[in-house]
Specification:
By secondary structure, the chain is α/β, with parallel strands linked by helices. The chain folds into 2 domains: 186 residues, NAD(P)-binding Rossmann-like Domain (Rossmann fold, 3-Layer(aba) Sandwich), CATH 3.40.50; 224 residues, Dihydrodipicolinate Reductase, domain 2 (2-Layer Sandwich), CATH 3.30.360.10. The chain is 34% helix and 16% strand. The chain is built from 14 helices and 15 strands. The strands form 2 sheets. A 9-stranded mixed sheet has the order 13-12-11-7-10-9-8-14-15. The radius of gyration is 22 Å and the shape is globular. The chain binds nicotinamide-adenine-dinucleotide.
């Protein structure tokens, strides 16, 4: 389905050379700029051991990742970027996020390390291009809505930055291929934010299944949560754009639409223009674990059949499926079913000799010996922090990526194709869509093929 490369090979040495270039050649030029003072100071503390990172998107998950980087001292944070200056309105009412709150956290953190209460060294901007132009930024963490992933990540790769882009990797199959191509072209260290790949428990389960502990796998079941926010119903009214929010930039490559706060922060995941609903949100975890445990990374199912899909009332702001069931089949006949339910992320492997399941509800098995050796992660670094560490360690040449862009693209593709089956359900219920991975298209549904890519608005047509 995707072309492969060793993303930790050539790219590392190129990165190290580039970085040495920054250290030796460019600091004199940039030292006068207030934007990079933080980077200069931090680099002086540990010139060979710390990566300078910029965050693009500091909302719900961006803040989470930022706090983990600071908590475990994983990298120097030298820049934060968000089109929102700062506001409530994120996943929970109490969350106040955006670039100014993020800058405050970073300045206070590094100020404290220097014993300076008035430290203001972190670059804060609404324009991600300014982060990409900052020579002191070695790597970017892209935590924006999915409709921006491909454009920003591709431009970051072109700018010579290492990239950590959140899951689901892409908005469409075509976007994902563009990201893989860019990573290859620019020899980018490119991690997908599928942190389960760094979760010792998920690894334990997948290793067991791969080693044949449950015998030949006979079927797989994955579970995704329901939509967890209510939609504004038919007749919803556009609202004025807050002065602190650059809505035009938030829309970016997506089509022009009137502003409503429920369109944007966190809720974007329930609107097809910006994301894919829970099948790509949670599905990017549980279906990715399925692929991993089956040893089918970089491959995927050949048939997609949606047997149930429930959508919000026509005219609602949200339009992604509220609930769905999708069956997929691999070329050898193995079936995987992805169903809405609880826990919100779960992968269950059934074999001829037992079953094993893991996810947000815990890890259980058909017999207790299957769980012997299950890692005790209490008090240990959490999976997300381990995943970030794996990214920074790879940049430093000390590790290999756990979720390189090719894997992210392969798992995201599977979720996108499931979603296309869901979207086709009202018109052609339970039709089996036949996927040709080499041709990158369905062989029996042109309307489904039309959903493999999405037009982008100017000027974002070319990343
Ligand atoms: N790994 C995980 O488990 C996990 C968990 C949550 C979210 N995510 C992923 O993280 C991404 C963001 O989700 P979220 O829940 O944080 O959303 P969010 O809306 O809370 O945060 C996104 C932020 O990006 C900003 N933004 C939008 N366009 C921008 C641009 N062009 N430049 C700079 N900033 C921009 C928004 O203003 C917002 O503050 C999604 O892809 C989501 O799937 C992953």
């Amino acid at each position: 389905m995707v072309r492969t490369a060793d993303p930790t090979g050539d790219s590392m040495s190129r990165f190290q050379q580039t970085r040495r270039g920054f250290l030796q050649g460019t600091l004199a030029g940039v030292a006068a700029s207030p934007l990079v003072l933080n980077g200069d100071w931090l680099r002086a503390q540990a010139p060979s051991k710390m990566v300078n990172v910029g965050f693009i998107g500091v909302g719900n998950q961006g803040m989470n990742l930022l706090n983990k980087v600071l908590q475990y001292n994983l990298a120097n944070v030298v820049a934060v970027c968000d089109v929102n200056e700062g506001s409530f309105g994120y996943r929970e009412p109490s969350h106040f996020y955006g670039r100014e709150p993020a800058k405050k956290i970073v300045d206070e953190h590094f100020g404290k390390l220097q014993g300076k209460t008035d430290w203001k060294g972190c670059q804060a901007t609404a324009l991600f291009e300014e982060v990409l132009e900052n020579p002191n930024v070695d790597a970017v963490i892209v935590v924006v809505p999915d409709h921006w992933h491909a454009v920003i990540s591709t431009m970051a790769a072109k700018a010579g930055k290492a990239v950590y882009c959140e899951k689901p990797l892409s908005l469409t199959v075509a976007d994902g291929q563009e990201m893989v191509d860019a990573a290859h072209k620019y020899k980018t260290i490119f991690q997908t934010g599928s942190h389960e790949r760094s979760n010792p428990i998920s690894k334990f389960v997948c290793d067991k299944v791969l080693a044949g502990a449950i015998g030949k796998v006979t079927r797989v079941e994955t579970t995704i949560g329901h939509n967890n926010k209510p939609t504004p119903g038919p007749g919803w009214k556009p609202q004025p754009v807050p002065a602190t929010f650059d809505y035009e930039r938030w829309l970016g490559p997506a089509q022009e639409e009137p502003y409503h706060p429920e369109r944007c922060l966190y809720r974007f995941r329930f609107i097809y223009d910006y994301s894919g609903g829970q099948i790509t949100n949670f599905g990017a975890h549980c279906n990715d674990i399925a692929q991993w445990g089956l040893g089918r990374d970089l491959s995927g199912p050949v048939e997609y059949e949606c047997t149930r899909a429930v959508f919000p009332e026509a005219g609602s702001l949200f339009n992604t499926a509220l609930e769905s069931t999708v069956k997929v089949r691999y070329a050898d006949g193995l079936e995987l079913t992805c169903t809405s339910g609880k826990p919100v992320v779960q992968t269950r492997f059934e074999g001829e000799d037992g079953w094993l399941q893991t996810g947000y509800g815990g890890t259980t098995a058909s017999r207790k010996e299957l769980l012997e050796g299950l890692p005790n992660t209490k008090g240990q670094m959490d999976a997300t922090s381990l995943h970030l560490k794996n990214f920074f360690d790879t940049i430093k040449g000390e590790d290999k990526l756990h979720a390189p862009v090719e894997i992210g693209h392969s798992s995201a593709t599977m979720c996108h194709l499931m979603n296309i089956a869901i979207r086709r359900f009202p018109e052609t219920p339970s039709k089996v869509l036949k996927w040709d991975a080499n041709a990158v298209k369905f062989t029996n549904d042109d309307n489904a093929n039309a959903l493999l890519s999405r037009p982008r608005r100017e000027p974002w047509t070319v990343a």
